[in-house]
Amino acid sequence: MSTESDTQLDQLPLDAWHRAKGARMVPFAGYEMPVQYEGIIAEHLWTRENAGLFDVSHMGQLLFHGRGVDSALEKLLPGDLLSLADMKLKYSLLLDENGGIIDDLMATRRGDDFYVVVNGATKYADIHVFENRLPREIVVDHMKEQALLALQGPRAAEVLETRVPGVSELSFMEGRAFDAFGQPLWISRSGYTGEDGFEISVPGGAAHELAEALTKNEAVKPIGLGARDSLRLEAGLPLYGHDLSHETTPVMAGLTFAINKRRRAEGGFAGALRILAEMQNGPVQKRVGFDVAGRQPVREGAIVLDDDSNEVGRITSGGFSPSLQRPIAMGYLASPLAAVGTAVKLEARGKLFDATVAAMPFVPHHYHRKGAA
Amino acid sequence: MSLYFTKDHEWVRVEGDSATVGISDHAQEALGDIVFAEVPEAGKQVSKGQEAAVVESVKAASDVYAPVSGEVTEGNPAIADDPAIINRDPEGEGWFFKLKLANAAELDGLMDEAAYREWVKTL
Fold this sequence. Notes:
heterodimer, A: alpha+beta, Gyrase A, domain 2, Elongation Factor Tu (Ef-tu), domain 3, 6-stranded mixed sheet, 6-stranded antiparallel β-barrel, 20 strands, about 35% strand, B: alpha+beta, CATH 2.40.50.100, 7-stranded antiparallel sheet, 3-stranded antiparallel sheet, 4 helices
């Protein structure tokens, strides 16, 4: 198995800034990235109560243009892009011909173009897939010069509004172009922590000024990858390469909300045959949450056992929940056992742990939905 | 009383034939926020280099190896109840277990405090 340290790592535009802020840098997705500053638990709780600034510039920012870009993308993604309104975001999945997940992503209609944010570790492979499978008239522009910062937490809107007037008018899963700091910014109300917040696409050269300006506010601290992982796990959000892979379909992963009624009726996307059949008949396995008894975290790779010690599933993410102060996990489990409350055993490090199937999210989402009750 | 360290970042403090074992400040710093610790019970025989305790941070699980052989006389219940003690005071209140030394000669291969502090600077 190759390790990331074998290969040359890229540096983020904010590399020096992270180090000056006391970050511990680790290899991740081909970059040296900040895993923590003062400590994962403190950063996690800060984000839940205030506002955390995350550097997610490793993620791939792609711009698709060309005639019929929406219908062309619909061949690869199962989401309803044709009726996606201008400046609106949609969570979707890049699928292989078997319905396996190549990546999960966020797609936004920006005028005639689609702006798509994909995972860092998969971005080059994704671009390859898009270029090979989209018709020639669709051009994929990898916006390498753009950094991506996320400001997340209950105070994110209040903080960002002071620097970018008007931004708090955005509702969840909506974006817009702004001018601030003398720079063009693309800001969407989105993120991956379960909290209200924003993702800010900024020219790499201006990222430093933006990060400095935001962290000058006493409500904002820089937050590392470690807390990003524990926050998204509490929010029940799957992470590609762990909870999602070529081996999982959107149906197994519980992501069928990303396939709307029209696409279900019409099909016509990669893997549609298998996915539509799975939707009808039910998947063999389902992604579920687990409450783990005791204090010891159970991590990715642990095996799920039924009462008769049969292997019935596998943990794909697991750890200690800083908000709940107890271990939680996510994984795949045989569908007949996937009802909330079912007791199972987890096997890890030569030990058995009691666990029960739990509803997700573990910690409620706090998204800013306009007009929501 | 003498203090020794291993290359696996355990420390052992020896008084007569009694030894107290924990993990170094460097180890707790590298692990980050510690959320779980499991210590051996009194009466357990441990041998040098063998897994004797478990410590888990938010990020990762690690084994704590016995720096020397002997019979465990006491595990520290305080760190099982509040594992963050190990972050706060790794070389004091955050001790893992005490044992009765089986072979004092095993201490000879360990680093003294000055040598260990110098060595971790090179890591």
